[in-house]
Task: inverse folding
């Protein structure tokens, strides 16, 4: 039986759907293929990466960009090129390598910023420059110290400048949700006239309420004369929204905007971003897929890639996904109460509105144990999105056997932890060869560590406040590097006392935060690996 549009929806919205083509979704429910596509603009590498402590190196950004292309996002906002040479180079290499999505670079309405952004994406198959300026009274007076006329001039001339170097130009009147309406309409009209192809309406501080934000989009469509077909454009300007989650309404606000006619959502994987974050990509995409009947829209996202993308971003940024997080949390499709389990076993849709496989939850028929062969491992890794062969597969298999000897069954989360551990994103100046610790309630904790550097193994011993502290002091003696440890956290990759422990450390170096990860069934070994991983990244970045 299908989701019957007329039993679920506002009747006023329905008649126009009746003549549209019908398809079937994975629930075998009748689904209407909507006429209106919503573009997905991912800003994980820009707004998401602005979060303190989420710093990613160039190789990690490239890995995320490749996965975003696999997810089939329409636009990747790759960074803010004026902010640092590192960011410029990272945007530029993503622009050169990634095919498929548009690659976008951010710029303030300042000549040097716009030049730098356009330069960074100049070799891209589909480049875009995104310029922004605050347009609310609070932003213009309090931060920019400019009159509305001056801001208008800056916006128009930056869009013109960007347009002279790049066809696709997005303009964001920042803090639109708190701006004077009349002024906002004028800025939008003038920037479309200046050449903007996308107008993005940001709720920069997460202030809006869904009904109100939807009305703002309707009002813009009604009151900006060239928003339908821009004076300079053969195709209508794309109307985008960019919502922050300060009041927990970013997803609702974005969907209200879509219902009101917006055709692009800016969002981040796992809802990362400034303060409380941005709209979560996985939430809006699955809401549109599941309730496309109501929202009158669809996206081109390959939803089966959502879980792998979420896990990748979480691992590389060091920001864990809460178990109850919608769509991508480990509990999102777990049923614990007896009544729910009974219902799902009899008929899955009683308590599941989405098919877990549609977001990439893979039910494996192969149980991986110490008796599993290399081929079974390679097959499962490939299902999880890791394509390994040759030396990488050999190393991962050896590690897998090691873990499998200690555990009855090796789960997907264990495999992800092993692979991440075995595939470092930077050269291994040092690697852990062995570790020996002694500790107890009556002893001073001591650690003896052997680190491999080239062909040599260097050994040192130290004591500390605990076994991890002792190990880190011994490592410091070997590397000779001064490390400021900013954060240490330990998580179990799976359930049970034989679970793999995943350690994440953040170290500081010259104002940069560097993340190190390590995994093992032995948490002291995982701690030492994470620390050595962070030091290798620090040395590589120098
Ligand atoms: O939140 C915001 O307003 C932004 C703009 C740069 C679009 O991130
Ligand atoms: Zn933002």
Result:
């Amino acid at each position: 039986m299908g989701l019957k549009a007329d039993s679920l929806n506002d009747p006023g919205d329905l008649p126009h759907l009746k003549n549209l083509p019908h398809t079937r979704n994975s629930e075998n429910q009748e689904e209407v293929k909507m006429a209106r596509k919503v573009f997905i603009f991912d800003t994980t590498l820009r707004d998401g990466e602005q979060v303190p402590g989420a710093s990613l190196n160039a190789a990690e950004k490239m890995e995320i960009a490749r996965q975003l292309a696999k997810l089939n996002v329409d636009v990747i906002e790759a960074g803010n090129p004026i902010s640092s040479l590192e960011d410029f180079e990272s945007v530029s290499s993503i622009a050169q390598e990634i095919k498929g999505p548009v690659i976008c670079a951010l710029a303030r309405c300042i000549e040097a910023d716009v030049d730098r952004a356009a330069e960074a994406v100049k070799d891209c198959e589909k480049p875009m420059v995104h310029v922004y300026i605050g347009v609310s009274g609070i932003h213009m007076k309090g931060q920019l110290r400019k009159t509305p006329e001056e801001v208008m001039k800056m916006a128009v001339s930056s869009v013109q400048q960007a347009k002279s170097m790049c066809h696709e130009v997005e303009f964001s009147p920042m803090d639109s949700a708190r701006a004077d309406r009349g002024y906002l309409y004028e800025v939008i009209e003038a920037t479309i006239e200046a050449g903007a192809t996308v107008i993005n309406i940001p709720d920069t501080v997460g202030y809006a309420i869904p009904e109100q934000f939807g009305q703002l989009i309707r009002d813009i469509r009604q009151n900006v004369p060239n928003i339908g077909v821009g004076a300079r454009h053969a195709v209508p300007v794309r109307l985008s929204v960019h919502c922050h989650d300060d009041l927990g309404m970013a997803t609702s606000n974005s969907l209200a905007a879509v219902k009101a006619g917006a055709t692009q959502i800016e969002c981040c994987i796992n809802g990362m971003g400034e303060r409380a974050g941005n709209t979560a990509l996985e939430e809006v995409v699955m809401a549109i897929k599941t309730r496309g009947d109501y929202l009158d829209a669809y996206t081109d996202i390959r939803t089966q890639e959502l879980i792998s993308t979420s896990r990748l971003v979480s691992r590389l940024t060091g920001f864990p996904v809460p178990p109850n997080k919608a769509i991508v949390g480990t509990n999102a499709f777990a049923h614990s109460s007896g009544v729910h389990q009974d219902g799902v076993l009899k008929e899955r849709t009683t308590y599941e509105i989405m098919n877990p496989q549609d977001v990439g939850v893979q039910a494996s028929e192969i149980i991986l144990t110490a008796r599993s062969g290399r081929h079974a491992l390679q097959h499962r890794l490939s299902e999880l999105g890791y394509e390994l062969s040759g030396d990488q597969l050999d190393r991962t298999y050896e590690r897998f056997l090691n873990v499998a000897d200690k555990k009855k069954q090796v789960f997907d989360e264990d495999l992800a932890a092993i692979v991440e551990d075995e595939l470092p994103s930077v050269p291994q100046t040092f690697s852990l060869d062995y570790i020996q610790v002694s500790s107890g309630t009556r002893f001073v904790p001591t650690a003896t560590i052997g680190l491999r550097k080239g062909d040599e193994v260097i050994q040192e011993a130290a004591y500390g406040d605990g076994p991890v502290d002792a190990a880190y002091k011994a490592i410091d003696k070997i590397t000779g590097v001064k490390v400021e440890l900013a954060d240490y956290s330990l998580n179990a990759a799976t359930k049970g006392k034989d679970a793999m422990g995943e350690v994440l450390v953040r170290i500081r170096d010259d104002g940069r935060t560097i993340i190190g990860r390590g995994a093992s069934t032995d948490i002291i070994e995982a701690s030492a690996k994470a620390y050595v991983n962070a030091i290798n990244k620090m040395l590589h970045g120098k």
Summary: Residues 47, 132, 172, 174, 202, 204, 242, 244 surround 3-methyl-2-oxobutanoic acid (ligand 1) (CB under 6 Å).
